[in-house]
Fold each of these.
Amino acid sequence: MLLAGVFGKRNLKAIDIKITFPEEIYANRENFIKLKIINHKKFFPGFLIKVSIKELNLSHLFPYFEKEKETVVSIKPTRRGHLSLKEIYISSVFPFNFFVRWRKISNTFSFLVFPEPKKCKFVSVTSNKIKGDKYSEIFGFDGDLISIKDYEEGTPVKYIHWKASAKTEKFKVKQFSDLTFPPLIIHLEQIPIPDKEEKISCATYLIVESFKKGIPVGLKIGKEFFKPSLLYKHKINLLTKLALYE
Amino acid sequence: MNKTKTYKVENIVKGLTYLTAFLTFAVSFQKVSFFYYILSFFIFSFSLFLEYKKTFVNRTLINTLALTFTIFRLLFITFETLIETLMEILLFLLSLKFLEEKKFRDYMQIYLLSIIIFAGTTFISLEIIFLFYLFLYIIFLNFSIIFLTYHSQEKNLSFSKETLTKIFLKTGLIPLLAIPFTAFFFIILPRTDFPIFSFINKGFKAKTGFSDTVNLGAVSSIQEEDVVVFRAKMKKIDESSLYWRGIVFEFFNGKTWISLKSQLTFKDKTNFKIKNKKTIYQIIYLEPYGDRYLFGLDVPYKIVTSPGFSQTLIEKDFTYFLKTPILSRIKYKVYSCPSPYIPESIKKSLYLQLPSNISRNVKNLAKSLKGSTPEETAKNILNFLKNGDYKYSLTNLPLSSDPLSDFLFKYKRGNCEYFASSMAILLRINGIPARVVGGYKGGIYNKLGGYYLVRQKDAHMWVEAFIDGKGWVRYDPTPYLTNINFKPKLSKIALFWETINYYYINFILNYDIRKQLILAQKISSLVKPKQLNWKTFKIISYFLLILFFIILSVYSISCLLKRKPLSPEIKLINEFLKILKTKGYLKRKEEGLEEFVLKIKEPQLREKALRFVKIFETFFYKDLSLSKSEIKKLKDLIKDIKKT
């Protein structure tokens, strides 16, 4: 019993936790964080240590590690805004499952949770309601047929212009223009959804989707206005604004 | 993907648990009866097969079996076979435990059972190999529990060989540290009833203490032993009357005194009691000291054992003994008369026997001490030994082939055995019947507890001479009690601990369990026939077998009842499908009812079946229950279908 106590206590000593967060964490979405457990003891490895993070309702078991061990765990924060992890515990039933020994980790970790992106019914980035799709002069695959040119190795088969190939007896491929969109400006307060959170979620969705599609997005929030841009930093900036919107 | 081979923690736990149990079996080999050992071991081995097949025996069946067996074994329990029987039960339970599907709780139960069995074997006997087993056992048990802890935390955990080795090596420190700790506590903590490590104590030197035979000239020195032999709860009496009678020796071959068990004499004890009205009553708590004699204050005329005590008490010359040595503490009551002599009529020749090789010197000495009356002769001899040149000693004892002569004329030193033997022989030479009595003399009176504490070092021998007209008169020729200012004392702390020990023994350790056992035995004696023969054994076995099947059937019935009764709808559809099956249409599982019915070739049958299905479906798939009239309608339809 005594030895079990000594071993159990020693096991939890000099253990540290480090958490690495990704750039974007969204509320109510599965996000992956890196959880690292570090053992500062020289000859005593970590046995069966469970890390519990109260704020995230998360617990992960590290069965055995010598110096350190890293794992990826999924988290699902419930609300947007700043989230600090203050109550991180390590616990273990090692060695004999007689009792659970635990210790609080003194480190705190803070990170920003972006609002949950929710598809809004009234508007869609790709819907026709956003008028004025514009075809650029850049060759791409999504726009209109611009011309026919000789086959180049690597061009997908579906772009082969069979009729033209038959006529010329040479492989000809279709060439399309790339599709670009006019910039999108979201006026947060004017989104016709009464609920504030829903409104924010909608705006988040629009921003995220627009960036995926390469549409520059601007945001008007309160008195602030952010010009449309496609820079990643701009995206994070906009989402931060939404995350912290009161 | 990393393809290193991994080992499931669950399997490791299983393996280690089997090893632990195997060790338990190994250590209890020959400690329990062969039959139960083989039975348990067979079940245990069979469980390995079950484990391989991944099939397990139902828990209720196991519990029923365990209960039946336990009741059966407890019926035949006695104090003497107590530990053995309990071990048999535990071993059987352990093997049964392996038959079922094991969860965390079950593993812990297995460990607990095996620990108790391990501890239990030390009560029966202890060989040096046990320490080796114990060492292995502690290591296996430690790993078992550690991996079980892992398993309890996460079911599907598995480790690579490398990690496993590391865990084994690092956690191996726990048992390695635990063993010296255990050894330390083993030394400082109080022991059990039974002298566990008696094999260590068996040195070359003899010890003071009571003995079944008395050998003169065999050892040169004797150690004084402080071990408690018994505690006698009684009033304090005069120290000179504190002779605790244990054994009487009649036959002497020149070196050894022997108590002749065949010479059992029966005395008229009631007569003896009337003549000496004063009775001293004692309660004796006798330690398991390794022999079979019960002691009482001289002269004990009656000994009453506690009701649960099943061994027969044999009496001889106011001494009392059992057939086998006392292996656990016992308690008994003694009624004694502190009489100076025991009046009785005897066969004199028995007590006048002399060794054939007795030396002339001794004979001459005996003649020189002869007085005008037997009493005077006895007094002369007593005086000669007690107040003469002879010294009491436990060291430098004469090691010789004629110890008596060497003691009397050469060394002139010896312990009580020499003094008593000399006096008895000197008396016998002078034609006075004499015998040697072995037991204890003195004791420390504990005022707090109100009892005498008698230790091995108080062992003593004295002489009884038969004086015509009086009977047996006690003579104690050993000088040490008078020559040395001998006043046994315990230090205050020792006395305090001794008192606590006494109460501990008295109230907690022993007699409560014993009382419960007595109760259990009384209950079992109601069921148990006095004489156990094959017939009664068969009856009991049948009874238990019937009991077993009753429990089993009650359980199966309750299981059946627990199953939800079939709804009338299900019954109907089952009936419907059964009939169609007889007509050669078997509904496949994935088929819809309508789809199935439409396959029927006979138009009449198809039409009827379809009608049934239509009605059935309107209710069943809407989760509506059928009304009585509808059920009747459907039943009629089924009958109709049956006919077509």
Amino acid sequence: MGHIRSMGGTVSGLVLIAGLGLAACDNGSSGGAAPSTSASVTPPAATSAAAMPSASAASSAAAAGSAQAGSTADDEALNEELRDYHRHHHHGGVTMFISMAIDTLGLDPAKKAPIEKIQSDLQAKMVPARDAEHDLLSTIADGVAAGKIDTAKVDAAVAKVGTASAGIHAATTDALTQLHDALAPAERAALVDKVKAHAEVWRKVNVDEKAASKEKGAHLAKLTELLSLTPDQVDKITTALSADMPVTPQNDPKAVDAYVQAFATAFVADKFDAKSLAAPATASAGHIARHGGARMARFFEAVTPVLTPDQRTKLAAHLRERLDDQHASAAK
Amino acid sequence: MNRTTMTFSKPFVIVAALGALAAISTIGASAAAQWVPPPAEYIASTEPVYYEGHASYWYGNHWYWHDEHGAWNHYDHEPAALAERRGRAAPARRSWVQHGGGRR
């Protein structure tokens, strides 16, 4: 296969050279085109060269007889769980993404203990925000169970998560600096990749995804599956969610992108001063909490009136289960 | 080659050249399609293996890593150390979601 691909590229390149060369010969006035024709002939060789290693690597992998890592049903289920996690948890801001990134850094056993100690410190500093998020989720779950969400109470809870989250960075600068100093350059780069990945997933499900989207994997589609919503219920929810939440300076997620980029640049450097990132970190944490919390609340406020009592009971239980998710529960 | 022949053959060679270009594009796309780097969900939840100063991820039968400019790269041929590592254990993935009776 690899040989066929590379030969195909070569043959195509030769035909292209011959074809464009003949065409150029026929037009004396387009002599200036000759160099560009020559230049355009180069890519086929490059394409051919690029095709060759890909095919040989594929052959090698096929010879190894391994499954397509990352694309199995289990993998997609894990991807979906992460998206669902970020739909429901917004306290902690990027510091939460950093803490989650530590979980999958793949460190040597000897290094794990000191890093986990730093992680515990980070989590301890996030307790006020985590508790505020518990109140928010509990308020929403209670409202779902009762058939009517107390919007004033929910709005106050969202604001509380925002305030508590905005205070996290100032409390964690020492721990972040310790984390930087304890990691090797490759581990710092890996942590940054993971923080960016968490931020991307958070953004995907809380900003990019339309609240009323019925597409596979979207929040409403997941809820349809969980509660066996009827088409009529889905239509009513879609209508209720169809007006997008207005973007305001208080919930514009650009602040998150700005801080993630600033953190990424600073953290891979040899010297790291977390205090220098205070302004974007504080703004970002507030944005994640307010935007994510408000969007989540709005979603369940639209859904609740449409549900049957049994569906409400099931959804309330599902939301209370989110209180036990890792990094969101009192136990680690 | 007289002028008549040239006039007649010009469209042919251009069509042939365009056809060849299209074929190359297809081949390029097909080759590129084989190199789909891991999605954010995978990077966020999977433990990497450190090799040659990079965190490498085994995904879709290839090892991927980010270079210092943020671009994804892959190994054309699987390095022996990574193959050996992969033979010992599959990539460890993590979920943070609580599942009623227990955690994954």
